[in-house]
Amino acid sequence: MVAAPRPARPATVLLTGFDAFGGDPVNPSWEIARALNRRRIAGHRVQAAQLPTVFGAALARLDELLAEHRPALVVGLGLGLAAGRTALSLERVAINVNDACIADNAGAQPIDVPVVAGAPAAYFSTLPIKAMRQAISAAGVPAEVSQTAGTFVCNHVFYGLMHRLATVRRLAGARGGFIHVPLLPDQGEPSLPLELMVEGLRVGLRTALTTTQDVRAEAGAEH
Prior knowledge:
Elements: E1 12-18, H1 28-35, E2 40-41, E3 44-51, H2 57-69, E4 73-78, E5 88-91, E6 93-95, E7 122-124, H3 129-138, E8 143-146, H4 153-167, E9 175-180, H5 194-210
Parallel strand pairs: 1-3, 1-4, 4-9, 5-8
Antiparallel strand pairs: 2-3, 5-9, 6-7
Helix pairs in contact: 1-5, 3-5
């Protein structure tokens, strides 16, 4: 008797968040990521993973995750140093510089050094960020397109991710990007409830997985 073939494993969406930073007991980026862990979205399985808020170590962990999961889509989430965000901020561009105004969780504070020596000055997100912004906003969740991801660990991970997607053969065809998130209500203001941000990310991921060509939007719809 011939055994029935095993069903194909669904393609993976790798969704990363960061560990706690700056004295806060939780990081909203990780709370959102783990709330979506193992969800099925547009035929894909979400795999959440936590990254350390540490230069170098965050990319080493990302490399392990990329090798393990071979994802079709990778989205990094971060709180960032700009705790005044009022919306899910879909980042447009990652730049090749680490320039930390404060130390990371390991006490490192690199100043004016490249994320990847000799690599391009910048990479653009390969997510359909305007289509995602429209869909998230239509779902009742504040969303915006952001033109800067900063120069701290969030940008470090964003740039490192995009460089790997552009240069590592086994990742060919995978798309990726980064989204900054607001504080949770018990962390201060402005903020967004966790449930609202989780729904916004779910809608955003579904849009990214089902949209091959980004929309053109009026300049006034961006920030």
